[in-house]
Write a structure and sequence with these properties.
Elements lengths: L2 H21 L9 H18 L2 H16 L6 H17 L14 H13 L3 H30 L1 H19 L6 H56 L4 H9 L4 H11 L11
Helix pairs in contact: 2-6, 2-7, 2-8, 4-8, 4-9, 5-8, 6-8, 7-8, 8-9
Length: 272
């Protein structure tokens, strides 16, 4: 479970509730169905026009898994596992798959199965893994496009709701007692703008940024796995593989990896 994602979701709700309770003497004014329907209903409508129902359904399933699911960016443990596989491959190439832990990264598991079952050469592995990474990158871009597109609409519908509220207000200015109703009417008109900003900036844009961060992290992970597996097939020395793959890490991570391994190769497990 990604506790940072859960904490962020609860914090967003808490901030919104605090803002509502602290900004007005009558919080019930924010329960205005006019603004909620225009912003939420309008955003859903435009999303259905822009994308197929299946793509939207997949986007919601993916966002739950990627924002609330466990992270897969433990590069250090992945490098340790690749070094362990390199040692095993030099001794017994056929027993490589047996060295994989149950929670190994799916991309690494697929690559090891190709080595064990099909005996692909280094060039063939490079072609297959590169093509797989291109496909994954394309899928990630399509997921991001859905959320980037949807996040553009709530502020616009909030402005639409405010505009409609102002039109309604201006129509009644000539009526008796209209002056005393101006403040209440303007506040109600701006509720839609408030909901548009909340939906975009506390829900949709953070989701887009999170998906982008996960995709970027996954790209680095797959690059580490691809280069490591190719060097395993080429029977490069495990120490060389370890030092080569550590260059993907930041200086702090490289120092941590060095202290964890004691300066040598070590086995490990890939983070789930």
């Amino acid at each position: 479970m990604n506790f940072a994602g859960l904490l962020g979701a609860f914090a967003a709700v808490a901030i919104t509730v605090f803002a509502i309770l602290d900004s007005t003497k009558n919080p019930k004014i924010f329960a205005d169905p006019h603004g909620i329907i225009i912003v939420v209903g309008g955003t859903i409508t435009v999303a259905l026009i822009s994308f197929s129902f299946k793509k939207l359904s997949d986007a919601f399933k993916i966002v739950v898994r990627k924002t609330l699911g466990r992270e897969r960016d433990n590069y250090i443990d992945t490098i340790k596992l690749i070094v362990k596989l390199a040692d095993a491959y030099r001794v017994n190439p056929k027993g490589l798959e047996a060295q994989l832990p149950a929670n190994a990264h799916p991309f690494l598991r697929d690559a090891v199965q190709m080595i064990s079952n099909f005996g692909f050469t280094a060039d063939e592995m490079s072609d297959v893994l590169t093509n797989s990474m291109k496909g994954k990158l394309k899928r990630d871009e399509e997921e991001l496009k859905v959320w980037h597109t949807i996040s553009r609409f709530p502020p616009a519908f909030g402005l639409l709701g405010a505009t409609l509220g102002m039109i309604s207000l201006l129509q009644t200015l000539g009526e008796p007692g209209a002056q005393s109703r101006i403040g209440q009417a303007m506040a109600t008109a701006l509720i839609a703008t408030f909901y548009g900003l909340v939906v975009a900036n506390l829900i949709l844009l953070p989701i887009s940024e999170k998906l982008g961060a996960v995709a970027s992290s996954d790209k680095v992970m797959r690059s580490i796995i691809k280069d490591g597996v190719i060097m395993i097939v080429e029977k490069k020395h495990p120490t060389y593989i370890e030092e080569f793959l550590k260059q993907f890490l930041s200086p702090t991570q490289r120092a941590q990896a060095g202290s964890d391994s004691g300066g040598g190769s070590a086995g490990g497990k890939v983070a789930a």
